[in-house]
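Figure 6 in text form: structure in, sequence out.
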């Protein structure tokens, strides 16, 4: 296999803009144990030996950064850099109005005009990957974080120049990958270390796109049903592993008048037509669909702020209830599905190839030889090939039995209105508290690849919880 990717990228440092969504008017930087030097305009050392007990205050003024060290003003500078003295150095950043974070390695600070500061963490690539894994997924098992580290590393290597015009590689928010602190958990550090150099590639050795979401609701989506491009390895797959997890089901209620009015006003549908009205209030998705009456479900999800496009609509007279499954766009890896698969003892490589069809996990840098691609293990409720070997069949039986313990999404007791024509009716109140507690982190980013480049106006790649 010819790997069409650089083998040394993961050993270098990258620049990540932190607190990228905040308007930082002032910030305090402090230290613990390790020593830092403060360098102005990349050449002049204005303070050295900064460690525990020292602090630096930074504010913007006239397109420069005002620097105060331990209460003493040092001057105004175009660029201020905190340079670490050893490999394990880290510092604390406390911007006004934001929670304190800590980051490893170096920090570069500049002014954005006269009002705000820009802060960029210059950090070892693998430390960045570990920080992303900590920010992006929850769990207790090491392989959960190994899976996240691999897809995050793959994305980062594919999108290394995403913010080149801005002077850094990545930001820390939904536009790129969440990176909200240095990795402080030893188990996540170990998982990232064990996955060192591991990435996902296609049959030609190209790094693949690795979109992920919180929960598929039981079935992932095809890439073209969410975005513009049809990608061979981003196919819809059955995903019973996502059942019974935190984000597996949700509901939302709207008045029938408001729901129908939206389609009339925004999409010019004739809601006075009985067949149109009935379709809009009795829409069912046993399997994922892309549209309702020609309207993209992605548009409806955005306009109504829904957790996913995988929902059915039930009519109860003066109101409709949307019963939804999953959380996120549904393409690629379901994080909660992956969490369950790890808990069931499924190998991390099989988890990744279950969600990214036809892909392969390889290790860069000559750490391990690239193996020939083996026949894929067909996981629970996927069609099994006729030539599958006995081991694969045994694995399939085990996984299928394990999934029988999953909590399947349950129907509500109240039945939908049976009338053919939609007319107001006095129906009993339907509860809508099935939705699980929302996870704390969202993530979405646009594809910046040369082969599948989408602009923001073209509804580019969206990765999110």
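Output sequence:
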């Amino acid at each position: 296999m010819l790997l069409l990717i650089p083998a040394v990228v993961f050993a270098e440092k990258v620049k990540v803009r932190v607190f990228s969504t905040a308007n930082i008017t002032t910030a305090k930087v402090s230290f613990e144990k390790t020593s830092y030097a403060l360098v102005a305009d990349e050449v002049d050392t204005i303070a050295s030996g900064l460690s525990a007990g020292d602090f630096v205050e930074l504010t913007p003024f006239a397109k420069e950064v005002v620097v105060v060290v331990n209460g003493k003003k040092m001057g105004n500078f175009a660029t201020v850099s905190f340079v670490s003295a050893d490999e394990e150095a880290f510092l604390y950043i406390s911007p006004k109005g934001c929670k304190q974070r800590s980051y490893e390695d170096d920090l570069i600070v500049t002014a954005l005009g006269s009002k705000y500061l820009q802060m960029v963490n210059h950090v070892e690539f693998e430390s960045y990957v570990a920080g992303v894994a900590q920010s992006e997924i929850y769990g207790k098992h090491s392989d959960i974080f190994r899976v996240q580290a691999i897809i995050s590393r793959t994305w980062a290597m594919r999108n290394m120049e995403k913010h080149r015009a801005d002077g850094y590689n990545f930001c820390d928010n939904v536009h790129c990958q969440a990176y909200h602190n240095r990795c402080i958990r030893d188990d996540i550090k170990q998982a990232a270390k064990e996955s060192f150099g591991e990435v996902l590639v296609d049959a030609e050795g190209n790094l693949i796109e690795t979109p992920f979401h919180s929960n598929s609701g039981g079935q992932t989506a095809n890439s073209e049903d969410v975005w513009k491009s049809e990608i061979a390895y981003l196919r819809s797959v059955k995903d019973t592993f996502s059942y019974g997890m935190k984000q597996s089901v949700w509901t939302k209620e709207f008045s029938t008048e408001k729901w129908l009015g939206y389609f009339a006003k925004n999409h010019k549908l004739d809601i006075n037509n009985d067949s149109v009205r009935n379709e809009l209030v009795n829409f069912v998705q046993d399997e994922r669909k892309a549209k309702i009456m020609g309207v993209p479900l992605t548009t409806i999800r955005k306009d109504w702020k829904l957790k996913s496009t995988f929902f059915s609509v039930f009519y109860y007279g003066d109101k409709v209830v949307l019963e939804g499954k999953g959380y996120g766009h549904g393409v690629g890896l379901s994080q909660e599905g992956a969490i369950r698969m790890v808990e069931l003892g499924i190998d991390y490589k099989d988890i990744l190839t279950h969600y990214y069809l036809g892909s392969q996990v390889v290790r860069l840098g000559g750490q391990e030889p690239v193996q020939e691609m083996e026949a894929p293990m067909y996981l629970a409720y996927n069609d099994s090939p006729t030539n599958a070997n006995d081991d694969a069949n045994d694995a399939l039986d085990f996984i299928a039995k394990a999934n029988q313990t999953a909590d399947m999404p349950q129907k509500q007791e109240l039945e939908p209105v049976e009338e053919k024509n939609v007319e107001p009716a006095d129906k009993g109140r339907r509860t809508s508290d099935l939705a699980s507690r929302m996870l704390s982190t969202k993530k979405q980013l646009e594809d910046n690849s040369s082969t599948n480049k989408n602009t923001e106006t073209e509804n580019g790649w969206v990765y999110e919880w």
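Caption detail: The chain has two domains: 24-114, 209-358+375-465.
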